[in-house]
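Everyone, carefully examine this protein record:
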Amino acid sequence: MTTQQHYYYGLGRRKAAIARVRLYPGGGAVVINGKPMDEVLPRPAARQEMLRPLAATDQLNAFNVQAKVSGGGLSGWAGAIRFGIARALVAADPLHKRTLRSEFLLTRDARVKERKKPGLKRARKAPQYTKR
């Protein structure tokens, strides 16, 4: 893909992952960090979740998706790309906003890993209590 081509941009975040997504008019090819989608996300459920905004707006074969993702794991990557695609679709056509909002695809999922607290083994797990 050339840099001269027009695209729509969307930034997506999920857990510790950050995805910079570009939608190019095309046939539906998905490239993540320079590799095909099947190579990067082996789980079909993650791929389906990632493409939900395109399916909800009937745009599956209308755009080529190019994403650069960093941080987090594969689940976070899929969620970040999903959010980025949804934002880019709104940039492409503001009429999609209503559909995407009704599917809760334009809402940032704020759940992140909780920090470990002092005196505890993990975020909430306390050492075993012994009375005697």
Remarks:
- Residues 74-92 form the longest helix (19 residues).
- Helices lie at 37-40, 44-50, 52-56, 74-92, 96-102.
- Residues 30 and 36 are 6 Å apart (CA to CA).
